[in-house]
Amino acid sequence: MPGEAPREGVRLMTVEYDAKRRAILEGAAEVFVRHGFAAGTTKEIAAEVGLSQPAIYHYVGSKADLLREIALHVDQDMMAALDAGLARSDDPLDQLRGVIHEFTAAVVRDRRVFAVFWQELHSLAPETREKVSKDEREFVARVGRLITALQKQGRMPAGPPVVLAQAVLSMPSWMYHWYRPGGALTAAQIADTYCRLLGLEDEA
After folding, report:
1. How many CA atoms lie within 13 A of 161 on its CB side?
2. Three-state SS string across the chain, please?
3. What integer is the mean pLDDT of 161-167?
4. Engineered SS bond to 191: which of 23, 44, 104, 125, CB 3.0-4.6 Å?
5. d(CA 46, CA 57)
6. Among 93, 83, 89, 68, which residue's Cα sits nearest to residue 139?
7. Is the pTM of this model over 0.85?
């Protein structure tokens, strides 16, 4: 049909563009983890991904733009994990298990990106830091509501739900410190371990 070839070409160009951006952000994360945001350079990032420095600016932008995109990627991962976990069930126990599984998988998948985010939070522009902090507060509050429901069922210990939510989410959040790909446990197995530690075993 007329127009099919141009549309397919645009789609392929978009896929290629997104793949390049993704590769650049992953390369930037590697460089920032090794040297820190202040010392890392776009020249090193370009070498990491096999592109020229002008290509880095074309696909993403400056070093500050790279850090902002890394932070927004973490923000998207975090909220997507929350939404996917909540969508698994109407039961708060299954929902909390789902959030833990989804969030653990996100941290494992994007370990370097999460590492840079936490290590360089102070380097973010105020507006970016505020957006991510706002979403993080929402994430914690919604997990806190699940914990409140489980406390009423006697499935979680007494205590401030937001404090317990922070404790629950800290387990996957800090995995970038110790997780290494190819280890003995998969992300799902690690998430199951967290759930057992919290007494959230599947009763089925």
Report:
1. 17
2. CCCHHHHHHHHHHHHHHHHHHHHHHHHHHHHHHHHCCCCCCHHHHHHHHCCCHHHHHHHCCCHHHHHHHHHHHHHHHHHHHHHHHHHCCCCHHHHHHHHHHHHHHHHHHCHHHHHHHHHCHHHCCHHHHHHHHHHHHHHHHHHHHHHHHHHHCCCCCCCCHHHHHHHHHHHHHHHHHCCCCCCCCCHHHHHHHHHHHCCCCCCC
3. 96
4. 104
5. 10
6. 83
7. yes
CA dist 15 and 187 (Å) reads: 27
- Compute CA 128 distance to the chain's CA centroid, rounded to the nearest angstrom: 15
Residue ranges of domains in the chain, CATH in brackets: 1-61 (1.10.10.60), 67-204 (1.10.357.10)
Determine the Cα–Cα distance for residues 25 and 49; give it in Å rounded to an integer.
Answer: 9
Per-residue model confidence as pLDDT tens digits over 83-136? 999 999 999 999 999 999 999 999 999 999 999 999 999 999 999 999 999 999
Residue 164 corresponds to which tokens in the numbers above? Answer: 């317990």
Cα 158 to chain centroid distance, Å, stands at 29
Instruction: Give me 33's structure tokens.
Output: 């983890």
- Report the distance separating Cα 53 and Cα 88, nearest Å: 43
